Structures
1.
Amino acid sequence: MGVSGCGKSTIARELSKHLKVPFFDADSYHPQENIDKMSDGKPLNDEDRASWLEILSENLGQWEADQGAVLACSALKEKYRETLSKNVEKVHWVYLDGSYELIMNRINQRKGHYMSGRLLESQFQALEIPQYGIHVDIDQSPEEIVDQIMSNMEIKKSEFGVFGLGVMGSSISLNVADKGYELSVYNRAEGGEEHVVDEFLSANSEYKNIHGFTDLKAFISSLSRPRKMLIMIKAGPTVDLVLNQLFPLLEKGDIVIDGGNSHYMNTKKRFELAREFGIEFIGAGISGGEEGARKGPSIMPGGTRESYQHVSQILESIAARDDFGKTCCTYIGPGGSGHFIKMVHNGIEYVEMQLLAEIYALLSKQMNYEEIATLFKDWNDGPAYSYLLDITIRILEKKEGDGYLLDLILDKAGNKGTGSWSSKAAFDLGIPNTMMSSAVFARYISSFKETRVEMALEKGAGKNDSTLKIDLKSLEKAYNFGRLINHQQGFKLMESASKVYGWDLNFSEIARIWSNGCIIKSHLMNELHEEFKTKQDLFQMNTVLEVLNKDEKSVKDILSNALDQRLSMHCLTASYQYWIDMTSSRLSANLIQAQRDFFGAHTYQRIDAPESEYFHTNWL
Amino acid sequence: MGVSGCGKSTIARELSKHLKVPFFDADSYHPQENIDKMSDGKPLNDEDRASWLEILSENLGQWEADQGAVLACSALKEKYRETLSKNVEKVHWVYLDGSYELIMNRINQRKGHYMSGRLLESQFQALEIPQYGIHVDIDQSPEEIVDQIMSNMEIKKSEFGVFGLGVMGSSISLNVADKGYELSVYNRAEGGEEHVVDEFLSANSEYKNIHGFTDLKAFISSLSRPRKMLIMIKAGPTVDLVLNQLFPLLEKGDIVIDGGNSHYMNTKKRFELAREFGIEFIGAGISGGEEGARKGPSIMPGGTRESYQHVSQILESIAARDDFGKTCCTYIGPGGSGHFIKMVHNGIEYVEMQLLAEIYALLSKQMNYEEIATLFKDWNDGPAYSYLLDITIRILEKKEGDGYLLDLILDKAGNKGTGSWSSKAAFDLGIPNTMMSSAVFARYISSFKETRVEMALEKGAGKNDSTLKIDLKSLEKAYNFGRLINHQQGFKLMESASKVYGWDLNFSEIARIWSNGCIIKSHLMNELHEEFKTKQDLFQMNTVLEVLNKDEKSVKDILSNALDQRLSMHCLTASYQYWIDMTSSRLSANLIQAQRDFFGAHTYQRIDAPESEYFHTNWL
């Protein structure tokens, strides 16, 4: 309520979006004679208003019976308000308070309104300011006004907020809403994202517990304290922009979770920025793609244990369940640890994919896609089960017309960076992470398609090579071998980071939350969950060691096949070479040490002296 | 000259170091009766001094005839000074000027001096301040005083400065001095480096054109303008500390060269810091180890072309010479380009070393060191010549007692980071730099010696395996093949950086300055110098392509040998796989694209649609 020109319609319309109830404009219920009178510049008298108010009053009763409504109505006098409220049980009166000068000014700037400015004076004369309800100063932005009304209405605050309604943000939001939480969602309404929130709310109008915002302050004040929000935006500098905007608006103790694929070093920095504001920051890796986010992802939150306690209930409720019904979300460790292990997760994923691509390439030499799919199904029904093997079968079977879709897909692999981050982290930590690097490089090489086509030799590289007889049992063993070394290298990378950064990671728990919800879920991951309870390392696990020992020969045979077929198996080769070297007491690095000492006086250690002693030889 | 206690001896001693002439103390030439008189607290009269001054005068004549000298002598009265200078052609009088109070204070703080403080007054009474010579206020540090004297003496300024007298800095300094330049060298005199400058000067006292400094300001003011100095200190944060100390002391237009192995990104930042001070900064890669630095390194300066002009003469004079007598120093490009290509140089070096280590490991199965050395000599006499092959021969031949030194060296390879930097740069640029990564990882793996010994299997890994028959011609071809791919990958990495950073690198010139003076010098580098004049890429060079094509089979055979011997040849394998993939028009990356689209909706391109179009399939 308030005088003409105070902004009733605008504010009421916004408010209706936040409250998820319809908006009505009292002016639409005027009889025609009233409208004519006002257009002629004549003020309405109380007689004019009587029938109008009766109509509104009846409607209000009806609206309340439905789901409630927001009505914009001047309702200047107490007796009008009495009429309006007589059929309603609960009215929230909101008085929009502005001075004559302010409103006069606004009306003069407005066009096409059917009331001329000179009637304003009579409105102010008629106005009886209510002694009750919510009074809001209109000399603020509409967002601020709505914000203030919302907080004063003592509406139930949201328990959780999601910032960013991209593919992952939307899916996670619905996942949270499914669990019954009151949820606020925010997306900016600019840069081509003008309608994101509206469209999301329309498409999911059945969720009465989702409240949409395009105004950041309103979004924030819609959250109960301490506020808990999940940022789901593209990793990179945008995250810093958003946090710099957010943190000053939040309060000490509020909890902000970055759920994107941020680099762990950036997460560490942001963690410290947040601390300056007293904000609890959590860097959470989230895996599972769109489907996982919607139905239950694997979640890897890193930060302080205290801040995790505040969000554990919600995060654990939306995560996937492991084979024993436990949630695939657990506290990982301090600082950037959550994003670090998500990065390694993706690195392991790169290798799993590359191993399958290498095997597919080899098998294609003697089998068609149907046969390969059948073989893979056989594997997938056994201990080799993995989500990635599973989708590979579906991909092999996917037809387009008479042919296979796979044959029409260009062989240039893309990447989003986490593979190369894992590889670079390995170099920083001094860990021989050969398979991830090989997988990333294999993608890079594939991207030079034009050069490859120009230089193509393809000697004897035709399909259905009759001379090739791959032993399928050996191939299955080689695949298993490669996967074991892949997981060994991935977990060793995390072990090294855990030591260097003092994270105290629990590898059994990490394997457990990766046993479902995420892209690298597999039977192997379940086994590792068990084994890591007592072992720190795959090479300490007898079952793993036995297999590696026994199947080394199969890998060698498959690699020989590949050599003969002029096929590079980057990852399988790397797994074999790593195993060979790690089981060789003597390597040829002594020559490298001698060379380094020769040309650079870098010194060397000796086998017949303590390792603490360094020697230099005058070689000439 | 000056009254007792003004600091004559201290200053004169310092000055003599800077001027590289002997120091004498006039007091040492007093007859005993004078000393006794002074000890008794009695002032000397002019009669006492006459014989003393005559002795000094004769000595001064002698000293001048030799090489000059610095004499500390009170020389209070004009007539004493006349006597002193009568046998000398050129005297620089330096008057140390201090108040009675200041000097009294200092004397009271001194112990063991044979003149008591109360004689000071008589000294001041006798003092006739000279109306000529250099007058210096003694209320400054000794370094400042010497600095002021040096600048006032109009001594010839140095043309070049070297900051840091480590192994490389010392060697380069002597190299510069050999070329006849007046050279100032600086090293801090703290943190265990108290005697570095003194020792360097003593050890190289035959160089009259080297001037040593431990005071930074004195070092700086010893240089002619615009000052040109080469920083030779350990790469890392120390460089920033030094530059932050240096830049404010320098003047606009002065040129600072960082000759260490700094990371190119740091060089870029420092370049911008220098610009704020108006300093011309040059990041120069320097290769060649101690010997190269002394006799002629390969120098890779990056910065502005203008600043390079100021130092080109000196840098080019100290560099190695190529086969045509041209200097192995050339302007590389802007910003961090010099340090970038030095980093890649080192990456190539890692691979060259690793290839030799792999071949050494394989050959060791059937040959002794003498035989291997003989084989390598044969290779080295032909087109396979390289410095690294050369030193490998000498290493193989080096004996200790009855055995070979190589067998006593521990097989844990160290590294100083440039290899992993190269690898990480490749990931940043999206370049499949597989061999460098493999070489670095091979070193990392070697460092896990304890695990390797614990896990050792060494199946059939004994020496002199009679079943093995390596074809030595194939091995030579494989070695050559690996080296070609190594250089291809290295130059492609530089090409990519050149494009991304806009450096406009000249690869023919880079190959030329790497053809001598540096660790990876080889006949191949000379060939590349020629070929790069018209080609951008080794794969565009017919001679290279022919060899790769022809010798692919040999590499395959050697890799089969290695598989049979349970030996990992990381780098040779990587070279083969890169070649195979780069000559394959169709790889299995289509499966990876399908997988990515399946679980992450990352989209894919198709072979039957323009590459600008991206597709998404609903796979289920």
2.
Amino acid sequence: MGVLKRRAFSIWTPFRRSCTAVFTTKPQSTVSSLRALCSVTESQKKEAFRQAVLNTLERRLFYIPSYKIYGGIAGLYDYGPPGCAVKANVLAFWRQHFVLEENMLEVDCPCVTPEIVLKASGHVDKFTDLMVKDEKSGTCYRADQLLKDYCKDKLEKDLNLSAEKAANLRHVLAVLDDLSAEELAAKIKEYGITAPDTRNNLSDPYPFNLMFQTSIGPSGSSPGYMRPETAQGIFVNFKELYYYNGNKLPFAAAQIGQAFRNEISPRQGLLRVREFTLAEIEHFLDPEDKSHPKFSEILNLEVLMFPREDQMSGRSARIITVGEAVSQGIVNNESLGYFIGRVYLFLTHLGIDKDRVRFRQHLVNEMAHYAADCWDAEIECSYGWIECVGIADRSAYDVRAHADKSGVPLVAYEKYPEPREVEKLVIAPSKKELGLAFKGNQKMVVEALEAMGEKEAMELKAALQAEGEAKFHVCTLDKEVIIKKDMVSISKEKKKEHQRLFTPSVIEPSFGIGRIIYCLYEHSFYTRASKDGDEQLNVFRFSPLVAPIKCTVFPLVQNQQYEEVAKKIAKSLTTVGISYKIDITGTSIGKRYARTDELGVPFAITVDSTSSVTLRERDSKQQIRVNVDEVASVVKELTDGVSKWAVIMLRYPTHSSRPSVTGDFLSYFISVKLVKLLLVEYSTLVAIPQLNDLGMTTATEDRDDVR
Amino acid sequence: MGVLKRRAFSIWTPFRRSCTAVFTTKPQSTVSSLRALCSVTESQKKEAFRQAVLNTLERRLFYIPSYKIYGGIAGLYDYGPPGCAVKANVLAFWRQHFVLEENMLEVDCPCVTPEIVLKASGHVDKFTDLMVKDEKSGTCYRADQLLKDYCKDKLEKDLNLSAEKAANLRHVLAVLDDLSAEELAAKIKEYGITAPDTRNNLSDPYPFNLMFQTSIGPSGSSPGYMRPETAQGIFVNFKELYYYNGNKLPFAAAQIGQAFRNEISPRQGLLRVREFTLAEIEHFLDPEDKSHPKFSEILNLEVLMFPREDQMSGRSARIITVGEAVSQGIVNNESLGYFIGRVYLFLTHLGIDKDRVRFRQHLVNEMAHYAADCWDAEIECSYGWIECVGIADRSAYDVRAHADKSGVPLVAYEKYPEPREVEKLVIAPSKKELGLAFKGNQKMVVEALEAMGEKEAMELKAALQAEGEAKFHVCTLDKEVIIKKDMVSISKEKKKEHQRLFTPSVIEPSFGIGRIIYCLYEHSFYTRASKDGDEQLNVFRFSPLVAPIKCTVFPLVQNQQYEEVAKKIAKSLTTVGISYKIDITGTSIGKRYARTDELGVPFAITVDSTSSVTLRERDSKQQIRVNVDEVASVVKELTDGVSKWAVIMLRYPTHSSRPSVTGDFLSYFISVKLVKLLLVEYSTLVAIPQLNDLGMTTATEDRDDVR
């Protein structure tokens, strides 16, 4: 991902952008409603919700501030056991949804990157933030953050603010992302902004490169960086991957891995971090053909889109099908549209609320000059709309940058079915004659002649034919020379071409895995009253796909028989590949349910007899009775998505009360029929005698009472 | 993983060790057979085999030298698509085998690590290699490598070497790992070793820290490093993880992630790299109880073991059960033995040849002083026996080091069922009297008194009672002082204790994933003659578990009907989660098989009719006919390990010739019976009419002919 502007970098600077996007992207509507947005009740509510989520996440070790016993390091977090499992599940689904389904070429490149690679991509020169330093203490701050804080604070708290001053501050917020170092310096001076902690004076803003620098090898002469994104590892391998793909376009390569950005002063907890997992796709395609073979599959998908024009004119995001967006020219091309659709399906399938994900098009001034079109998948959470996936048509910029820097041609070709006849200009300087005439300057003249464009060459040819000689400007000598007829032959020849060579374009969907996971936490979190109503209990409504643990196993009471059954079930869960947690503490069953709800475990097995057990679903709290030998495969069916809970409910008797023989017999009969239909062509009534095996004679209390 | 010696670090320095292990660990037998080992034919054979493997791996993009278009960087490699898939499969199985089956707590910590953490672990001070510099060019070399090269070269090539000189050189090789900087310097001087490329003089050896250094945050005042191992992230979280586990021991935490070592001059290709994936387990347990609840499961496992004593006395490694190894005291404890067994099962299940994996115990001088016992799982490949997994009982060293450095207590406790009465020594110095007597030295005297052991304290008490005063040595003052009776009270008191506090011990299995994968490549590689015998074809015999792609789909000839069937099958493979590669080129089917064999694809589906297809197994080259609608689920059955190929063979007609009705009917009948037995209790003959559906009427040529 090359750049000319800082903002053209992928999704980790954009968080700044999306924070300010409230101001930049909806200038009319938003600026006027700034105070409303910041109204105490609304932001307090969001803050309280976020705190509830964060408390649960930290208490249950979804994450841990890294090196906590040493006081922690800003912007570095560990995933604890459930967080780690959620992340592994999200990545596994990403692989299934993108790599496997699209037959992508996955690669795995190192984080340590030599300087030349990031010089070519533009990161060494341009991947910077503007920084100011406390002149006495040396503490560093991001210049735009200080200015933003000042403006927001004034607007919120200064009741005597004149209308003119307020408008001025709002304008600054709106253009914050576009301010140069000089403009930032001027504003900081104008407002008298000082260091927040000490009130000392600040230095002028200067660029700070956000890459972690290091040195490769012992000599100290090979500077390197920890990669700020994974994309470069794919670009430099284009030639190999193209060959691996049978020299065919389009194809996509993908990479999941760590990326590093040495943020000046990380804020916003889990959203702006110094090390994070990226999952990036580079879809290489012919710049003259950006259609997508599978576009029809997402054509009718309705997604919330926020095109550039709507942002500029103060309209809201609107629902539109991907097909319409492409055919109306809102989205630049089919392949870009295809990935917008696939990203939407990925996010919503994970559990992101479909009404709180939108695709926002970059404004013209947000995009790099070479980009054809860029869209961000933004997810709404308590911090606002957060960019979680960037989807950019980056044209041929990145591949060409590496070809130029390395001198290795990185091109694709299209073989013509029939050779095509083309007219080619042939310029043949006579080195002998030119040598005699220009001596040491011969080489420069030859190069200048060979570099002529078609028009210039044909004019020279005409002049030479008419006059026998002509004036010719040699730019490397910075003077005109006289070229004679015998010094160069210029002609047009017809040639047969068998193929077209070109630098491929790239469409790049780039996923910030940590941000997606954080938003997923917020979208999955809810509270509900405990049975006695005196407490709010936390629940994560993770789908089985995402849930860190699929199932818990509890013996109802501490007794050896039940514990053995629990262990037997645990073993069969392991065999079918279901992650579980066994809890043999004597804690009340209600408390144990509350604990697992807080981890988002979708199913709980309570061992309350030696022949059958209670299976409980987290959100509905419904409970059914299943045979000990069967329960692992039932949980497997549910977590694999083969059957929904509603279907399983039909198949087994409910637990809540002693079953009425008729009712349960009926549902049992229906379920048996369903099963049999799946297995054999005809069903019989032979199942009836097995009814006794179900052991529907155990405890009847509702187990959701907490303390 | 703390250290006092460089060698006490985990598995990435040990490669050096295992390279020299040939010399250090079997002093008698090996040194005398050194020339034999290095004989041209043997090493040439190994070299040729390695080259064949490496050529195939690089040509088929299992790996790519990183940043190849820029000339590459020593010690950095990319995994290309098949390599990346193999790695993902190995890691998925690792998670299943260790994390899931053992209910481990997996965490995911950043690579960027602040200095204090690695100061505590010992890496900042001790994680070094001795380096020499070319005095003119500045090129750096590892001192021990140069010395080793010199000795080996002399022994191999100098035919006039005296017996005495040869013995001297062999001795140097044997003790290479133990040489200090001064000893290395002396040897380099003695032998007149110069820089290999320039013959310039070399500097004296000096330590070079192998960690990639960087700086966290913009101020430059927070040094950090890229972690050299993942273990520290677990240790610093002990308190949180112990709590998460319900304050119960034993439990294990695990982490998979990148680690970084800035090697001075990496050699040996994929085995010694500057960035690599580690998978580490820290099993926390009570130092007073190192039994393992699941030890009985691996008790009778026979593994090749190479205990310390056998190495020292020149014996060979021998097969022994893990149970015997523990009961005979060869392996220190049950938990260590349990992990040896589990590691063995992991490696052999992946496809590592069971006869070429051994567990080598560390010699006493290889272990850190605090370690209770260490074993390396070494795998034999063309480079010799390579350490791929280290399994160490590291006692309480690491946890204690972080507790000391951070000041946060990192302890576990054992609650007694009944409170226990214990006699406790109570030393109460009188600060007032001591202050009057010792003024500014008071603090040192107080501390020295409090630090007394029981014996010393009781002796002092007796002396004070008898004489009224006594001499007392204060080590921090380095002198004796006179202590009077009123300056300290010493007594023994009976106290009730409800629990025992202790620092947990740690058993650490640490897996070098890249090394395991490389050895797996070598163990899986073989060649076989092409059908016409004029070429050797490469095959990787990967198990379905490991294979990068499970299945290929080929239309036999280029035709739209077959291509559509191929796409239909591809779609159903995706649905059941099987990775496949579709090849619709017009290449001969034999060539296409050869291509997929080289990628280690276990199964190939050739579309040669619209109703049924040919399914071919890679190693046996056997082919059967399966219905189009059925083939994805058959491949799924095979790759999930639910059925073996031999069983599937019974169920379907073979492809090689038109089936004789009787033979195939028989095998079909048997297979139907098997299936039915799985599904329902009784089988019928209703299947006969379906025989026609199998479409066994297509092409009969053998498809393994290559060109």
